[in-house]
Write a structure and sequence with these properties.
The complex is a heterodimer of chains A (about 425) and B (about 450). Chain A contains ten helices and 19 strands. Chain A is α+β, with helices and mostly antiparallel strands. In chain A, helix 1 runs parallel beside helix 2. The longest helix of chain A has 18 residues. In chain B, helix 3 runs parallel beside helix 4. Chain B has ten helices and 25 strands. The chains are: A alpha+beta (about 425), B alpha+beta (about 450).
Chain lengths: ~425, ~450
């Protein structure tokens, strides 16, 4: 049926591309420590992109049955569409990457329920008053891209995710905390995630005052992606091409502290965003975004690459109908010095930010990060002294990650299956507390 | 398809079965400072089945409609994984109705050319304001038909047109970037987009003026909160806390959120009203086929109600409220808000300024996360000195505890305003963005914690 859509579109348009994705997700959800819901979702998405007289039109549907309607809608939007500065291509050969784990595909829902029950049981042993929420999910899917230049490539993929959270309610104090990970394989350490929550529960047993003032901000592995978000938004080729990124014209310039290198790596076996080709079928591989603090590349799809006169980097994603640049797996290598534990051990006065909220609500494009520290731990003389509540900070990452990096941990951790990052300590960070 | 789903519902071997079918067409148009970025027409149809077996729900959604029978089996399989808490499914409303919501000029029926022209003209208008270098316009309209049938005999067939747009002018001065936003939309005719030059240029001027505003000084302030942010507060901080699932599944919250308990002074009244025609959260029926209504949540400072799906109403032994909403056929209905408002009081804005003396006026909302501890990012603000508006400030982030903040509401304005819904909405459990309405009058709140540099 996809071929039929392409054939019809080719007759009416100068160039055409059909993107097809189908997947089935099975999820089990625990609320208040009990299985509360189990669901299965089947999803089909067909996106047609046509180029007519140099203009791009789009149409999408939840099935491939109605080829005429789809082609008609795409031709209608092409009349007003953006000018195509690029041509569709057959595509370079792709690397062989691992995106499909048969163990995920055949994983029974019963096992997923048991995984959730085990985690709930372990947390309740630590504190029977906890209100526990958990989620175990798996996805099996495939996608295919065909175009009028002769491309026809497809990929099978699996996904597995585990999310665990607790709320501990005490008189006048609610403490909600969570942790999670994901992978294309079954290689998610649910037990490790559970034990990390147990550790946090112990550390957070006492609450210490949240004083306003400058201190070391220890950004835990889990929130380093939030710190990188403004950078990745600035590297997004679309923002560069339309003139709204602060990184325009800064390739080769020092943008971050020299201890930072940032890579986009879609080739890591079984990482959540691993794939051999991007949402336009462009073959992709490891890309250096920042090398020892110097900016090396933007994230580009066909359209933004053409507008900037650069080569596409294979970073098109198809979240909506139109492709848009976005990173795949983001890798920041660890520093040369000490591990996260060692760094915390030698901090005299600092706050560990385990969970940030609202980090993406400020002026992200300008580099601003303005966040509440949802779960914060106070460090005094190298020891966790307790939990700090109600603290906020703001700053600009182009200043924080360039001029105020106190340390980058030598160890790295995988976050949400697609980020591999160290923990980072920012010096002299003003934190607004309640005292 | 509908008759097929009815057959599946009547045949399913379970205690309760529900089938939903949805179809429609949606147009999305995106512009930025370089002009039109994308225009897309999306056609969709899909189904959802929910079956109750031994107190546990199995839920499936599917776009491959030919496989509905196969998915019913999957729903029964996952429902049987464990026994659940539900002892039956209470007494639902049995409604049989067909509703086609009519508008003068259904946005989905307006020619694409006209939509593109009008959006382009506003894009050019924003770019003509000095200081504005970038823009973003997101527009969508849809005509959505939802059919709900269940084993109790409910049969609802509802067609609802909807439209929304967000106009975002972005001002740039060197490394400083500031933006503003105006939303226009709801269950409204396309005519709402005509003659809006003044509003849209106003947003662009606001963004440009923010370049000259000072970053706010962090601290604890007496604050006047504008209607837009008041709406976000009542929705994010209070509303989510008063949703049936949130209360039911949290023992601590059940103790706190007891009906009849006083949370604020007598001037405070919160409602959730699904019957407000035109607003983002207007729904004749919720996605379980329960008729929508106006529900008082806080009346004269006392908690009097909460928002339920049929599941949470059954579990808590409380009446249905018409808040069982689903983002689409891909999801099961859960307790969600419709149009959540602070009802107006009697204080004028001038009286509030006078009462504040020295403090801050906080305007607009860029976003927020809620619950007992909330965080909001405001669009901008003004210091209040000696009862008068003073310097323009930016980068305002508010944080607070819901229950303390409710107690700290010292005055409620007489100026109710419900901003239009744009392209966003409410997010909960992956169901985002669900169109809702939020609003209220100006409110005066003591001891507001504001973060700054």
């Amino acid at each position: 049926m996809i071929e039929r859509i392409l054939e019809r579109a080719k007759k009416a348009a100068d160039a055409a591309e059909v993107y097809y994705a189908e997947n089935e997700t099975t999820g089990v959800f625990f609320e208040a420590g009990k299985l509360s819901r189990a669901d299965v979702k089947n999803s089909v998405r067909v996106i047609l992109r046509c180029i007519v007289d140099g203009r791009i039109g789009y149409a999408s549907a939840t099935g491939a049955e109605n080829a005429d309607e789809l082609v008609g809608n795409a031709l209608a939007t092409a009349a007003y569409g953006k000018t195509a500065g690029f041509e569709l291509a057959a595509g370079e050969p792709c690397a062989d990457v691992k995106t499909f784990d048969a163990r995920v595909a055949t994983l029974p829902a019963e096992t997923m329920v048991e995984t959730g029950e085990t985690a709930v049981k372990r947390l309740l042993e630590t504190d029977p008053t906890l209100n526990i929420t958990a989620e175990v999910k798996k996805t099996v899917g495939h996608r295919r891209i065909v175009n009028s230049a002769g491309m026809d490539r497809s990929e099978e993929a699996t996904g597995y995710a585990f999310v665990l959270s607790f709320t501990r309610a005490r008189e006048g104090d609610i403490f909600e905390h969570w942790d999670y990970d994901a992978s294309a394989s079954l290689d998610v350490d649910e037990e490790g995630i559970t034990e990390r929550l147990v550790d946090v529960l112990c550390w957070a047993d006492r609450t210490v005052p949240a004083k306003t003032g400058k201190t070391d901000l220890i950004v835990h592995f889990a929130e380093v992606p939030a710190l990188l978000q403004p950078l990745l938004t600035g590297l997004n080729g679309e923002n560069v091409a339309r003139g709204s990124s602060p990184l325009i014209g800064k390739i080769g310039e020092k943008t971050l502290d020299e201890r930072f290198s940032v890579y986009d790596d879609p080739s890591i076996d079984y990482a959540s965003s691993t794939s051999a080709f991007d949402g336009e079928g462009t073959a992709r591989g490891k890309l250096t975004l920042v090398e020892e603090g110097k900016l090396r590349s933007y994230l580009l799809d066909l359209s933004s690459a053409a507008e900037l006169g650069m080569e596409p980097t294979g970073n098109a994603t198809r979240a909506g109908s139109a492709p848009a640049p976005s990173p795949s797996n983001v890798v920041v290598p660890g520093g040369d010095g000490k591990t996260y534990d060692e760094l915390v051990g030698e901090t005299d006065d600092g706050i560990i930010a385990l969970i940030l909220t609202g980090a993406r609500m400020g002026n992200v494009l300008g580099g601003e990060i303005s966040a509440s520290i949802w779960t914060g731990l106070k460090v005094e003389n190298g020891e966790v002294a307790g939990r700090v509540k109600n603290t906020i900070f703001s700053g600009n990452i182009y200043e924080m990650l360039k001029d105020r990096v106190k340390a980058v941990s030598s160890d790295v951790r995988t976050i949400d299956g697609s980020y591999t990052v160290p923990a980072v300590i920012i010096a002299d960070q003003l934190i607004t507390g309640t005292e | 398809m509908i008759s097929k789903l009815k057959t599946l519902v009547s045949r399913a071997a379970c205690d309760f079965a529900e089938a939903r079918y949805e179809e429609g067409i949606a147009t999305h148009i995106e512009l930025n400072n370089t002009g039109l970025k994308t225009a897309n027409v999306h056609t969709y149809r899909g189904g959802n089945l929910r079956v109750l077996v031994d107190g546990n729900f199995g839920i499936v959604s599917f776009e491959d409609l030919d496989r509905a029978g196969e998915y019913l089996e999957k729903a029964l399989d996952v429902a049987r994984l464990r026994k659940g808490e539900l002892d039956g499914f209470g007494t639902g409303e049995v409604n049989v109705d067909t509703v086609v919501v009519e508008l003068d000029e259904v946005p989905a029926d307006v020619p694409l050319e006209e939509k593109v022209e009008i959006l382009k003209s506003y894009n050019d208008l924003m770019l003509s304001v000095p200081g504005i270098e970038n823009t973003r316009i997101s527009y969508y309209d849809k005509k959505d038909r939802r059919v709900i049938v269940n084993s109790d005999g409910t049969e609802i067939d509802l067609t609802l047109p909807r439209v929304g747009a967000a106009f975002v002018p972005i001002a740039v001065d060197g490394d400083l970037i500031q933006q503003a936003k105006i939303n226009i939309g709801g269950i409204k005719p396309f005519g709402i987009y005509r003659d809006r030059e003044e509003d849209i240029a106003g947003a662009a001027n606001k963004a440009a003026s923010l370049l000259k505003a000072e970053p706010v000084k962090g601290g604890v302030y007496t604050a006047i909160i504008d209607p837009e942010l008041t709406g976000v507060f009542v929705h994010e901080a209070f509303g989510h806390t008063d949703e049936g699932d949130y209360v039911y599944k949290d023992e601590h919250m059940r103790e706190i959120m007891q009906l009849g308990r006083r949370f604020a002074s007598e001037i405070v009244n919160f409602v959730d009203d699904g019957t407000l025609f035109g607003e983002g959260g207007y729904i004749p029926y919720d996605d379980e086929g329960t008729k929508s209504r106006k529900n008082h949540l806080i009346k004269e400072g006392v908690l009097v109600g909460r928002m339920h799906s049929r599941e949470t109403a059954t579990l808590m032994g409380e009446p249905l409220t018409g808040n069982g909403r689903a983002l689409s056929y891909k999801f099961a209905p859960i307790p969600r808000m419709t149009n959540t408002l602070v009802e107006p009081g009697e204080t004028t804005f001038e009286e509030m300024l006078e009462a504040v003396g020295d403090g801050i006026y906080v305007c607009g909302a860029r976003g927020g996360t809620g619950g007992e501890t909330f965080t909001f990012t405001a669009e901008h603000g003004y210091y209040i000195r000696g009862g008068k508006l003073a310097e323009h400030v930016r980068d305002l982030k508010l944080q607070g505890n819901l229950f303390e903040t409710l107690e700290n509401i010292a005055a409620v304005g007489d100026d109710l305003y419900i901003p239009d819904e744009g392209v966003g909405g409410c997010g909960k459990w992956y169901q985002s963005p669900l169109p809702v309405g939020t609003g209220g009058p100006h409110i005066l709140v003591k001891n507001v914690q504001i973060g700054g540099r």
